[in-house]
Specification:
This protein is an alpha+beta fold and about 140 residues long. It has a single domain, classed as PH-domain like (Roll), CATH 2.30.29. It has four helices and eight strands, in the order βααβββββββαα. It has an eight-stranded antiparallel β-sheet with strand order 1-5-4-3-2-8-7-6. The radius of gyration is 15 Å and the shape is globular.
């Protein structure tokens, strides 16, 4: 789900908590290292994002936040914050020429540059978190 989260009301907060869970506590962030990424440059995105991003030559930056049941990709543009909520069961990650995140028919491709290198440890923890979540619900 993609929507504007510049101003959060209780309805939007409930949608976020229902889809990707609550944010981690301070203890989990500090001691278990569950947190978000640094910003990364967005190289390409699916057409569903076009209605939120006006075509211009500015660089788009995005960051990823790990939640209990999924992730939130936040993109700040023109003093607004666009959030893409992805539950783990819909999350697909490809690590090729770009760092790609897919869910349903939507995608974001992050450029592999110095920002990506800063986030390599975070990307590993994101993949581990998805695997841990998937393992909880696997059928033996």
């Amino acid at each position: 789900m993609i929507f504007n989260t510049t101003h959060l009301n209780t309805e939007k907060k409930e949608i976020i908590h229902k889809l990707v869970g609550r944010s981690f506590s301070i203890w989990e962030i500090l001691f278990l290292k569950k947190k978000g990424s640094h910003r990364m440059i967005i190289e390409d995105f699916s057409q569903n994002f076009n209605k939120y991003f006006k075509i211009n030559n500015d660089l788009l930056y995005g960051s990823i936040e790990i939640r209990e049941k999924g992730i939130i990709i936040r993109i700040s543009i023109n003093r607004e914050t666009i959030s893409w909520l992805i539950p783990y069961y819909k999350l697909t990650i490809y690590n090729s020429k770009n760092f790609n995140i897919y869910s349903n028919e939507d995608f974001i491709k992050f450029k592999k540059d110095k920002y990506y290198i800063m986030n390599k440890k975070f990307v590993r923890s994101l993949i581990n978190e998805k695997a841990f979540y998937s393992k909880k619900f696997s059928v033996n």
